[in-house]
Amino acid sequence: MTDDITTDLACKELVEIITDYLEGTLPERDRARFDAHILTCPPCREYVAEMHATLRLTGRLTVESISPGARDDLLRALRRMKASSTEL
Amino acid sequence: MGSQTIVRDSDAELIALLRDGDEAAFARLIDAYSAPLLRLALAFVQSPSIAEEVVQETWMAVVTGIGRFEGRSSVKTWLFKILTNIAKTRAQRERRTIPFSEFEVDYGDEPAVDPDRFLPASHPQWPHHWATPPQPWSMGPEGTALDRETMAVVRRALEDLPRAQQVVVALRDVHGWPAADVCAALDISEANQRVLLHRGRSRVRAVLERYFNDTATLCNAESISDTKQAGQ
Ligand SMILES: [Zn+2]
Questions:
Q1: Domain limits of chain A?
Q2: Separation of first and last alpha carbons in chain A
């Protein structure tokens, strides 16, 4: 093993462990290699920034829910349910 | 995300309210979970309209079944279980099941970045370092990239993902679910979840990279022709 952890991690490997890094599931030693690598490698720093931008943009997507009519039907069903159970 | 508002109520409280037929509590549950449940249903059935029916059926099952809910699992887990049972039955009936093996990922090759963009292993100084490094995106100052066109590209990138990756990325990154919920809902391991998330996110990044780099080329071309015209 070399002591120089900066040359230890190649860019090709970094792009494969970035999700583990972001998820916090990377073993301590690999985490240190990752941190050391991006300190000295501008393209990988750019890559990490792009991944963050990707997550930010994905997080801005609007979501589709059920239709208002379907929602009303469900609340009505609940009301009916309540009415029939209190009658018992 | 909406689901956060739900977890503030303790499960016991929520169940008591639902058993009482509390409409506000039920409405909050519907509003917090319908969108992610629609996405989850798409892990089992093909079409969005069937997914909507599955979600609707799930909520009806909650209305009629809350009295029988024993509280041995969390409300969330109970919801996932109802939905997946209904979705699986429905998928069988349609005979259009998504092969669930899609979620059992192989750990084989699906590189996050085109291997040709790296120097070969035999490179004397920089083996496996960038040969074609990523270029900064032409997003401009924070916020300017959030125009309609960009968001349409993001949406398409997500919808074009293989189904298993799409469901995992959407639940995690669009709906903000924690990894544990995604694993529980899809009944997959943490490791599988992470591989699907990684592949999906990497693909979306690659699509956005192409889009932003093309936009940059286009802008440069435009500004060059502007300069030319100005010089004439
Ligand atoms: Zn690098």
A1: 11-62
A2: 76
